[in-house]
Known about the structure:
By secondary structure, this protein is of the alpha+beta class. It is built from 13 helices and 22 strands. The strands form 3 sheets. Strands 3, 4, 5, 6, 7, 8, 10, 14, 17, 20 and 21 form an 11-stranded mixed sheet that branches. It has a 9-stranded antiparallel sheet with strand order 9-11-12-13-22-19-18-15-16, covered by helices on one side. Strands 1-2 form a two-stranded antiparallel ribbon.
Amino acid sequence: MEKRVVMAVVLTIGVIFLSNFLFPSPEAPPGQMAADSALVDGGVPPADFATAEETTRDTATRVGDEPAAVPDPESGVDSVGEPAGLSEEPADTVTVTTDLVRLRFSTRGASLMSAELLEYESYTPNGTEDHPAQLVREGDRVFGYRVVIGGDTVRLDGQSFTVDRQELTLSENHPSDSLVFRYAFPSGAAEFVVTYGFELDSYLVDVSGRVEGIGDRGYSILTSLGQGLRTNEKSPEDDFRQLAYVVRGQSGGIESVNLDKVEPGALRTADGGPFDWVAVRNKYFVIALVSREDGPAFGGLLVMGEPAAHTARMVASQPAPAGSGFGFQAYMGPQEYGRLEAVGRSRDLEHVNPYGWRWMRPIIRPLVGIVMVILEWMHNFLGLAYGWVLIVFGISMRVVLFPLYQKSMRSQMAQMQVQPLMKELQAKYKDEPQKLQSEMMKLYKEHNVNPLGGCLPMLLPMPILFALFFVFQSTIEFRGVPFLWLPDLSLKDPFYIIPLLMGASMFLLSWIGQRGMEANAQMKMMTYMMPAVFTVMFANFPSGLNLYYATSNLASLPQQLYLSKERKAAKRKADQYKAKARKDDGGGGGSG
């Protein structure tokens, strides 16, 4: 049993250490829109792009009996942000302000050039006080459209649009409104119209559009996701480690790929399409394009690696069926669990930043969901600061698990009582392992002892600790939240007070736990080594995680003292039993 406990502890340390280490085209019918030579992309794709093109075509959503058109990779991806045939007209900026965001659109391509989150501060070294977090990188653009009709890709991301107003501010008296951008093609026969709808208390932008004047036929829309999110954190490298594109297939699978894994100049297509949503996210924020439940999914996502670090150009394709336009919702904001869950409508957008390693997610995902619901309820309905929420949660977990701990301790005491008989069996049947196993099971049954009862309840808090570890890695609710001397619960304690307190509490628990037990050299070493190892390992972990663990340990001290008294009494009975067994010279068999 001691070996099993030691093995469980070693595995626990290994898992946490590794997580910290590793975590750092059909023919056009009559009446089609004329292709303007200044707008249509040209060129022959390199041979090595052929496979990517075929893959994307295979994953495209079908419109009727034909697959939605997918752009030539050469023209559809590698020139994102460098539109051919730029309009010479000057671009205007249109500002939209709600309670949560300030968005700036450019009339050049009807694209988004800035997205400020008014409730979140930027912590970058060059940021100033009250400087809002910004999602779009300087010089980058989100949205910006291309229309794929037949074999032509018509670029609109560099063209000058007209807009129905220059500024839009929402208020309680005016909680929703929209912007309409229009582009009239040079031929005068067709027009591209895109509408952005906004709500006062929402990070969602409703996007809808259509190409007018091309008759009753289908086409595809290509929408840019930009080149990656801007970092707003004190530790940019930590933020970049989680910068990734993420897609969710209609079968339910979620694929997340770090942008640094996309080689410069390499073209990738996301696997598993069609997609309910496509997104780019970092540690705390996300831009996601979410298909409508009653509309077509995204047919594919093309990703082109860039020479600059942490950068890749991303373009999503979506079919517009014949006789209708296109539409989706764009979420641009924090990875706030409740908001993402509402947006996804059972499509797992709240898991855009998957918790844990792939093999752990079936367990960690539901556990994280339960933990977050509890923590948010305590914060919102009880009005507690998140620091106090973690303290109360740590104490509550020990109270809830007390019966299991008590059962575990009493199971260990029962094992202590039969230990003398066990040793006699081991001596008697040392050359008969099968007979020894049989007699041991008979002994356990006669004395109502569960050999695993002392270990399993002790391991129950471990999944919760793992869940909280991943929660603190990327949960927006703890970002920048101070508590007492701690400037940020998502960052390490600058004075290392909480890790030291956690280590001291571990030592006390272990020391008290060995009172009344026959501690061997191995157990004594664990008493001193485990707290030291955990203290060093947890020193740079988020202070909120250390706060929870230290509180949980301190809340266990009264319980451990209580159980220590029972353990001493059990040891006295075991000693008496052992003395009596020595007197009974003829009954050394131990099984009866």
